[in-house]
Amino acid sequence: TIDLRVVYFFDFQWALNLGIQTSKHSYNIKPDGLTNVNLFRVMAQMKYYFDTHNLSAPITFVGPHLLAGAGMYKRTDDIGAGTGEGVIQEEQIVGFNAGAGFELTLKPKKTFLSLEAVMHFIEFSDQYDPKFAASGVPDKSGNWYSFSAVLMFTW
C-alpha cells in the first residue's frame, strides 16, 4: 500500500487528515481465475486527540486519538489477468471510515510515528454476487480493515 497524507492541526485536539491511498491485491478463484485488484482511495478524515495533560506519562507519550471520515473508493479488477485476455472492471463509490490510533513522539515537535487501525464501510454493487459460491466463498461482502504505521514530519 502507498499512502500519502497531509495533516492540518486546528489546535491540540483536532486535526484534518487528507489522504490518497492505493493498494494492489490478487486472487485466483474459479470462475474468474487470476484476478489483479487495485484499490484506490481519496479520503478526508477528522482526528480527535484526547487531552492527556493530567494523565500518567506513558499515556501522554502515546497520544491516543479517534478518527472518522469519508472518501471516494475505486476498485479496478483485471479479471483473468493470467490469460493475457483480462477483462477490466471498474467501480467507484463513496464510503465512510472510522478508527483509532496512537501517535508516538520520536523527536518533539518534529517527527512522530502514528499507528492506526481503521474500518472502512463500503458497499460495491457486486458484493452479494454468488459466483464464487462453488469455490467456498459465498459473496464479497464485508468491511475493509486497514492497519498502518506512518512516519510523520512536521515543520
Summed up, what is this model?
The protein has 155 residues and is mainly β. It is built from 1 helix and 7 strands, in the order βββαββββ. The protein has one helix at 57-62; strands at 2-9, 14-29, 33-49, 65-79, 87-107, 111-121, 144-153.
Description of the structure:
This protein has one helix at residues 57-62, and strands spanning 2-9, 14-29, 33-49, 65-79, 87-107, 111-121, 144-153. The chain is mainly β and 155 residues long. Strands 1-2-3-4-5-6-7 form a seven-stranded antiparallel sheet, with no helix packed on it. Strand 4 (65-79) and strand 5 form a beta hairpin. The protein is elongated and about 60 Å long.
Notable traits:
about 160 residues, seven-stranded antiparallel β-sheet, single chain, 7 strands, mainly beta, about 5% helix, about 65% strand
Tell me the layout of helices and strands:
Layout (H helix, E strand, L loop, with lengths): L1 E8 L4 E16 L3 E17 L7 H6 L2 E15 L7 E21 L3 E11 L22 E10 L2
Antiparallel strand pairs: 1-2, 2-3, 3-4, 4-5, 5-6, 6-7
Give me the count of strands. Answer: 7
Tell the overall outline: elongated
Q: Total number of helical segments?
A: 1
Mean pLDDT: 90
Low-confidence stretches: none
Most strands sheet:
7 strands, antiparallel
Share of residues in helices: under 10%
Distance between the termini: 26 Å
- The neighbouring-strand order within the major sheet is 1-2-3-4-5-6-7
Q: How large a portion of the residues is in β-strands, by DSSP E?
A: over 45%
Judged by helices, strands and strand pairing, the structural class is: mainly beta
- Global Rg: 19 Å
Give the H and E element order: EEEHEEEE
